[in-house]
Prior knowledge:
Blueprint: H1 3-12, E1 21-22, H2 33-49, H3 54-75, E2 82-85, H4 88-97, E3 106-110, H5 115-128, E4 131-135, H6 143-153, E5 158-164, H7 176-185, E6 189-193, H8 205-208, E7 212-216, E8 228-232, E9 250-253, E10 259-261, H9 275-292, H10 294-313, E11 318-320, E12 330-335, H11 340-351, E13 353-354, E14 356-358, E15 363-367, H12 374-388
Parallel strand pairs: 1-13, 3-4, 3-5, 5-6, 6-7
Antiparallel strand pairs: 2-8, 7-8, 9-10, 11-12, 12-15, 14-15
Helix pairs in contact: 2-9, 3-9, 4-5, 9-10, 10-12, 11-12
Amino acid sequence: MSDEDKLAAVRAALPSLSAAIQLNTGSAGPIPAEVAAAMRELEDYERDFGRAQAEYWLESEQRVDEARAAVAAVLGGDLDEVALTHAATEGMNVGTWSIDWRAGDRAVTSCHEHPGGVGPLYMAADRFGLDLRFAEFAGDAPDDEIVARFAELLAPGTRLVSISHVLWTSGLVMPVRRIAELAHERGALVLVDGAQAAGAIPVHVGDLGVDMYSIPAQKWLLGPEGLGALWVRRDLVDSARPTFASLFTFATVDSRGNRSLLPDAQRFRGVGFHRPSVVGMARAIGWLTMYVGLEFVHRRGAAMAHRAADLLGVIDGVTLLTPPDRMAGLVSFRIAGWEPQPAMEELAARTFCIIRTLPDVDALRISVGFWTTEEELDRFLEGVRLLAANTPESIPRRRTLTIVGQG
């Protein structure tokens, strides 16, 4: 198919695109119609026939493996290196707590991390007396400066470096491989929050040289909420400590209590999952990889995100926070004279867009996907230009429609 025909087919398969300009995939992406249908079909089965049949449970475990295999394909890993989780945050917790921490051990992160990544570090630091350090740099800092800030903190005794692949604030793509090489030289493991990367940009965990990589299902992979996955480097599986202990952690436990852990990353899976959502996750990733194709996903997504950043960057009164030379699908910006919340509300009312605010950096953020059209961006950008040329007091009032007989 030509790109034009493929885009039309893709948009037809994402019904929510007709409801608004979907620019908040960094929180939750549009769900494909066939994914929703597959989940609904299984929900109907559970309603009509029940969920307790042994055969149904065994078949559900096969669906878990399908979802794991789909994640492995996107990340460039293998099935036995992937465990399903309930969110990227859960994966970051599992990765952080898998280390045999001792008082005085050091953990290093950045000043731009999402609470889902830095929260487990604070908890571990409080419980074990860790030396938690933050690499300080601007959200658009050069790679050399970022690496230098980490190098200053990677002292002997550093056990873990926990970072995002793409910063959720500025949208900067971190120099993950360089940081990982440096961390390994100093004896530290590297845990990565891939929430804003997997599905938005090409990811190959082997090329990145990291040890653990956590992702959600509902963002750029267009799956259901409440699911994610953690990739664990194969030769790390045996030495890392599972966070949970359950049926899914042990291969066997004999009458004397001797335990045998599962031989792959499944040992990091603690509990079960909503089965229709597991099917939805596998179907969504399969839809992206086999129906749409990751080449198209990454190529067109990058083109549209760069177009948005370039056009925002030349609007008088707009300050672009995202570095165009190192970006994924997120674009963060400020509009002079406007607080983020009223600006978001005004843009939503005038252009029918769905975006979000970033209170931590006093900015707005849009997420631009491969499904986004030039016309949608133009309509959104026209709204930004209108706000940038006015203040909340001077902006022309929106036209309203009075419905006679209501109320």
